[in-house]
Amino acid sequence: MAGTGTFKEIIEGDVYKFYADGHWRLSSSGNISYVYNPTVAGKQAYKITACSKDEVNQAFQSAKAAQKIWAKTPLYKRAEMLHKVAEIMRKNKGPIAECLVKEVAKPAKDSVTEVVRSADLLSYTAEGIRILSEGKFLFSDSFPGNPRNKLCLASKAPLGVILAIPPFNYPVNLTCSKIGPALIAGNAVVVKPPTQGSVSTLHMMHCFHLAGFPKGLLSCVPIKASELGDYVTTHPLVNCISFTGGCDTGMSISKKAGMVPLQMELGGKDAMIVLEDGDIELAATNIIKGGFSFSGQRCTAVKVVLVMESVADKLVSSVNAKVAKLKVGPPENNCDIVPVVTEASANFIEGLVTDAKAKNAKLCQAKFSRQEWKRQGNLIWPLLIDNVTTDMRIAWEEPFGPVIPVMRIKTPEEGVKHCNSSKYGLQGCVFTSDINKAMLLSDAMESGTIQINSAPARGPDHFPFQGIRESGVGSQGVTNSINLMTKIKTTVLNLPTASYTMGTNKLPFSSLLSFLLSLVLGSGRRRVFADGEKRTSVW
Ligand SMILES: NC(=O)c1ccc[n+]([C@@H]2O[C@H](COP(=O)([O-])OP(=O)(O)OC[C@H]3O[C@@H](n4cnc5c(N)ncnc54)[C@H](O)[C@@H]3O)[C@@H](O)[C@H]2O)c1
């Protein structure tokens, strides 16, 4: 059970602690943040301590110190540690999943899946040592005017301290997808958890604690973002920000961040284009799975359907039939449609529906099976909105709820134009049985990823995943995240003469040997330099 047994150390009374310097403690500020249960209006699920400025600063200082030691930890040992955390997470998936159900209303089964998937991600990331153990070796003579007398060794070095800011919808998975690559690459991490989702994140962090990482290397500092958000994101010890969340927050952080690498995974308006030759049943199934699961609160949810007029009726009626079978209710019962995360989100979604209705869109479920479209608290019944036009907000905005607009198009180009006019460019998908059309459309759609004959999806977690325009900066996926969280360090070996592998040059052994000798002799000694002269080394 959450906060007990293995996890009893992370709570005092009914208040969850923060994690820094290898310890769990309450903030000296005495400040508390409240996490609400989305399923029961106004009901508090958890209380968490909120860190002060000094405590956040201390976490960054400790991270900086610990990173220096961690960077000297052999790659294989770093990998062993990540495998160990993954094992602990798998063993303790129950309590972590329990928190996801309570604080973000994720269906119980999906909550367990999120924890297991995150453990798998960490195990996979541990194998990132294969990427990190390889570097590059360059010869100088491919650039005009250079003989082969310079040898360049390039390798990946850690950046330092990574600030990880995950969103509420996948707090465990999207924290692991930042921590794993950061640690394997030799970095330290400070996590700022989302308020809804913080308790799952704290439980997950305890698994890292139990695995025995060096003190200070990892910390998790819940804060009130409105008060300390800027302090955290502009802290001078931050060497990289890996953020997942909404466009407005991400863009505001990007503008304020200093000269540090950014990994920004922001919102999306993922378009599905359905052509006349597409498998309509398959498209309908993917709208249900890809658009309504977790009540549409996924960055890669289908967020607008652009269907060719001639097959639109068939698609809409197939989706409507499937919508009627969706189970609406609490996450504990594994319902398909669960309450959205906050009342503010529910109000926002309702606003999009009201606007579309006022502009004569058709609310399919208001008519279908005589069921009025409805909302009770944060619970919003699934809704397909047909005949959506470009003057409606829902044609452009991200609902992050179980509401999907359908726009009827006359040509595929019309669909591409709508997709490319969006401020977002995360994912998209195309349904067609013609591979040539699929490729042409994929190339024409300006989004980070286009899926052919399947709904947008983030996984598998090692695939590259990125957004363009306001959907983000940088690319993720295990390999890309490792690369983003490292910098290239080069050492150039300057030889006294050009040397070609198995070349037929006359070998100037004496000078080459003396040069090599100079490399192996210790600092401060009288050394023979490449030019044959004896000098005292400066280091
Ligand atoms: N592209 C992706 O990979 C991806 C994945 C999941 C979710 N998302 C997007 O995330 C959004 C939903 O998540 P959300 O509601 O948690 O987003 P959000 O932008 O409200 O919050 C994201 C995170 O930023 C923090 N935050 C807010 N203000 C801050 C500030 N001033 N300084 C520092 N941190 C601050 C929040 O506490 C949270 O941890 C959607 O737009 C969704 O599309 C994107």
UniProtKB/TrEMBL annotation:
EC number: 1.2.1.9
Enzyme class: oxidoreductase
A Gene Ontology molecular function term of the record: lactaldehyde dehydrogenase (NAD+) activity
Domain Aldehyde dehydrogenase as annotated: residue spans: 26-490
Keyword terms, alphabetized: Oxidoreductase
Catalytic activity annotation: D-glyceraldehyde 3-phosphate + NADP(+) + H2O = (2R)-3-phosphoglycerate + NADPH + 2 H(+)
Residues of the active site: E265
InterPro entries according to UniProt: Ald_DH/histidinol_DH, Ald_DH_C, Ald_DH_CS_CYS, Ald_DH_CS_GLU, Ald_DH_N, Aldehyde_DH_dom, ALDH-related_metabolic_enz
Domain of life: Eukaryota
Family: Belongs to the aldehyde dehydrogenase family.
Protein name, entry field: NADP-dependent glyceraldehyde-3-phosphate dehydrogenase
Species, as recorded: Selaginella moellendorffii
